[in-house]
């Protein structure tokens, strides 16, 4: 069989949890598909929806927004507009599914007919059933003997949404708390330190604050002036927490904000206070998390930052951590910021430029992710001082993570015309190389994945997902094998996939 028997329909890359694209850049949602050869101009197998919209292979069907734990059904129709009969060869199901969120899509019914003459159609039904909020991506696969399309792929996109409800957010200035986080006070013995707390209703129904109360071993050293109140959607309410230490010591308590938020009925914030005698430094450490929300990590735990996917050998953008001295004497920063945990060698730190921080001054340090291999990586960043907690030692920690990234590229091609490829010992082989084309499997830099083998169905599968772990232009070719041609056919013509960033 010569290479002319192949024709690539498209090559595209799949982002885990997002839509596909050809030029695999960006790494975010809402990407568009750019086929190498637009299949919309190719006759043969395609799918249409109930409104008559036609989707060629590689297209994306948007299923809109659906409430979590509910379901939205869609009837689709497989149509053949080629001048030949097409057989749907999927076994056991003519239509199957895949993708990171495939469990949130259900194929309710299969096509009643698997043989479609020119002009014939057969319907099937799918449902989108989101189990959580956010964009959910998957794809449908329809295997066939269509000489033009081969394996048909339809991408699915839907969004799970929360039911209308109140939603509580609690903040202090630019710092946004999370439940069970902590805020820090310091004051001279016999003095007072106060903070203004803002409660916002970010939901779509009234937020009813039924009670605000203090508890804990040192609750008497703190006070608050909050009252029961109803907060309209997108509106705020403020109250004050004060710290009144009776001695030079440490104090702890907590404050609870009870409301009708269905997800957080009691919003608890830990209160840590330091009573000082005379002048003392007081450290404050904060950063912006992955949602661009300022987080105070001075003495709290449980905060984290993810650098996402970065190709091995490359370096991420930096994450800035800010240190402030809120006290009345110099803060000691001579102890270097350290990395520990599972993969400390996969991250780097640029130390603060100052080793001593005057009152009301600030400094920063940087963290970067530079993976040496694929897979998940994690470490712990620790900033320690000898006098940051009102003259006593302090420790601030941040969990960091990232992934040595990869990018999946789905390759499909028309079936071989050599019948023996679709019998025992028949197979396809996909080979690829970065940066330049190739003509033989043994050429330098060529990678060939495990063969796509005949498995007893009417046809050997004619698609494969390859995985690359670096950016660049990848050249891809396919060849076939049979019991009569163990050395394989000539390679198909090459096709290119440009990868700019990892997908997972």
Describe this structure in words.
By secondary structure, the protein is mostly beta strands. The chain folds into three domains: 38-162, Immunoglobulin-like (Sandwich), CATH 2.60.40.10; 164-278, Immunoglobulins (Immunoglobulin-like); 282-405, Immunoglobulin-like (Sandwich). Helices cover 0% and strands 49% of the residues. It is built from no helices and 40 strands. Strands 3-2-5-10-8 form a five-stranded antiparallel β-sheet, with no helix packed on it. It has a five-stranded antiparallel β-sheet with strand order 14-13-16-20-18, with no helix packed on it. A hairpin with a 6-residue loop joins strand 21 and strand 22 (266-276). It starts with 7 loop residues before the first strand and ends in a 5-residue tail after the last strand. Mean pLDDT is 88; it is low at 1-40.
List keywords for this structure.
504 residues; Immunoglobulin-like; five-stranded antiparallel sheet
Compile the SSE list and pairings.
Blueprint: E1 8-14, E2 45-48, E3 54-55, E4 60-67, E5 72-80, E6 86-87, E7 95-98, E8 105-109, E9 115-116, E10 121-128, E11 134-142, E12 152-161, E13 168-172, E14 175-176, E15 182-188, E16 193-201, E17 207-215, E18 222-224, E19 229-231, E20 236-243, E21 250-259, E22 266-276, E23 283-288, E24 294-296, E25 304-310, E26 319-325, E27 331-332, E28 338-340, E29 347-350, E30 356-357, E31 362-369, E32 375-389, E33 392-404, E34 407-413, E35 427-434, E36 447-448, E37 452-453, E38 463-468, E39 472-481, E40 495-499
